[in-house]
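User: Here's a chain of 623 residues. Predict its fold as tokens.
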Amino acid sequence: MRFRHKLSIVLVGLALVPLIGAGLIVQALLTRDTVRSVDAKLSIGAAGAAAAYRAQQVVAQTVAVQLASRPDVARAFRDRDASQLDLSSVPPGYTVALADDKGTFAGSVPEGQVWQASAELVPHIDGRHVIVSMPLNDELLLRVAAQSPLPDGVDLALASGGHVIASPDGLSGDLSGFAPGQAASDGSIGDADVRAQVVRVGGPGRALTEMVANYPTGRISDRIDALRLKLLVPLALLAGLVAALALLAADRISRALSQLSQRALALVRLQTPLPPRHGDELEELNVALDTMSSELTHRMTELEGERARLKTTVARYGETLAATHDLRVLLGGVLELAVQATKARGGRLLLYDTQNGEATEQVRLGTARGSRTDLPMVVQIGRGIEGEALQAQEPRSSASPRALLAVPIVRERALLGCFTVVDAEGGVFGPDDVETLSGLAVQAGVAIENARLHRAVEQQAITDDLTGLANRRQFYEVLGREFERAHRFGTPLSLVMLDIDDFKRVNDTHPMKHLAGDAVLRSVAMAISGHIRDIDLAARYGGEEFAVLLPQTDHEGAVNLAERLRAAIAERLVSFGGEDEIAVTASFGVASGPDLDQTQLDLIAAADNALYASKREGKNRVT
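Assistant: Prediction complete.
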């Protein structure tokens, strides 16, 4: 075999073997990335769906508590007749039942798997409670999916005892191969092969109920096959080109060697000394191949390290989003991870105010600290790189006077804020940094909205809808804390109870009936709110009765406040529905404590007794 043929075989082998190896490695990485991408979607979908499911439970519990404190519900229990009960405020998808010690006399509990929220009647009477049922069915999963939009391709199912009980996509049967709380894994739901993430959520009774975010295994295989095909075609073309170049190089090298051999023979014949040998073309090629192989190995090591770092960052990012509903803590956590993911030296996060048309800084890190000239606290829409990003709702970047990348946080076309990172390690931010920060901004938008919704639900649970004051439940919670603090530190604690005089007459005689009564209640609530301190608590105790809790206030101070409230209410005229103005008064009862043997109920009873003494003595007075 001629040297040219041998050299061609060697060169083709040296060229194609690393290329094929690199192709196999890239194919394996793409396959693994596809599975990881699906796992990330499943993790996000499962966490979001579980949070939305728990939000549905919070709504059920809130509805139960609100109904249990309503006077018309108390009358329904008293008469064991709910025919006149208005349940229009109950959200769709929930059912209400009223039960006492004799059993359920109004409403019913749906058949099948349900989650129930129960609240005892206020004021408490043994055996009387309101039951709000949430059926665990396809309709519930549709609401959950609507409240926490799922990543593309992810489906939801609800399982109990290892068996699917609800699935809008028609899945049914037993779960196999999954463990709640662990990473996504391959398994099956009935006859369907899926990859799924399972999160345990509250279920009926002691049953173990699980939220299953699933992705068809066949769809993953199709994506992997498509990636392989996209890789195979250019790889084959590149291999053909490399082979042709190798043959051409072998031909040229063989010709060069022949010429060198002929020259050497000619020099020898002329008895001229041959020039020193410093390595031939084959050695130079070997050095080049070694360099290329070393560089490729080094780059693959860097790529693996970068992927591991990105995986860790994304995992920590997801944990941060799911770990807290405290907006301040959440913003600090996501900003720190955004700075790490883009290899920036500093950054900050702004939240957008739709009313003022400006974004205000919430938290900043690293080299962004102290930069008030180029990074002001408040950013106007359209001004500067950040303002342009907010206005266009698209990423914007600049390289001078410093490397800066601003990515808006948008949720369903609603502008929420902006990520800004500065001072990239490499000098400038590239397209990969824009893509990474944009992906993190999408997840941050979901988390920020969820935190705000969680805070709104919490506020609704402790607030009276009509007056905006604290409800009775919140009053008792704060009273317990303040009573214990007063006992511990020996500070005074006073309670003012007030009741609107002749309130029934307003409801019965005014042309607008109860609407006029509602206007009176709101007017009295506004008068109370305008005369108390930030540390005081005003609550609607029930019906037309209000309570004002006064920490660190003795009896004299409480009486003075009550007198001011009495005068403010008496001077306030309520105009409603275009009718004549309504003048109202209120009677007050004041009690102070705590004494050594006094309880919270004793304090309430003392204020209530004083209130009724004011009623007996002619009303519109303080006792």
